Amino acid sequence: MATPMSASRFLERLRAEGATVVEVGDWEHHNRNHVGPWGPVHGVMIHHTVTKGSAHTVELCRKGYEGLPGPLCLGVITKDGRVHLVGYGRANHAGLGDDDVLRAVIAETALPPDNEANTDGNRHFYGFECENLGDGKDPWPQAQLEAIERVSAAVCRHHGWTERSVIGHLEWQPGKVDPRGFTMASMRARIRERL
């Protein structure tokens, strides 16, 4: 059970981990907290955007779209490895997922199959969207993979979590495939090494 860190502490932690951060507008106060609580937080969730073009991707994740208002994450990790902070607090990224997965994340044990959508993930996860078409062919540049590793490690380091607190959207919500193009097992190995 962890209280979300403050926006300023979050920024400080990302920079201390070596992430290249771009602050977008009034990101510290842009959130969905008015529709429900944010916290306690238990982990980090990684997504791909199914978009092309960094400026377009950042704007979409900041504003959202018809039927899903922004922010759609806290940070957008573009192909060049920059982390664009677009919101802080509750964000529309995780949706409903499996309570058994949440329990495994909290316990930092092996993840069970995600076969239910009964738990509000927006409340419990820091979310990062990564610019990628999500077709399994669009490349993941090393700078981008390293940025995912760095932001995940920064959050885990702050809360005293291991790499097991970092999951992909596909491990949380039935039917989701993101991130596609690398495995979460390989990313968790990188995060473990960094921690």
TrEMBL record:
<dbReference type="Pfam" id="PF01510">
    <property type="entry name" value="Amidase_2"/>
</dbReference>
<feature type="domain" description="N-acetylmuramoyl-L-alanine amidase">
    <location>
        <begin position="27"/>
        <end position="180"/>
    </location>
</feature>
<dbReference type="InterPro" id="IPR002502">
    <property type="entry name" value="Amidase_domain"/>
</dbReference>
<dbReference type="InterPro" id="IPR036505">
    <property type="entry name" value="Amidase/PGRP_sf"/>
</dbReference>
<protein>
    <submittedName>
        <fullName>N-acetylmuramoyl-L-alanine amidase</fullName>
    </submittedName>
</protein>
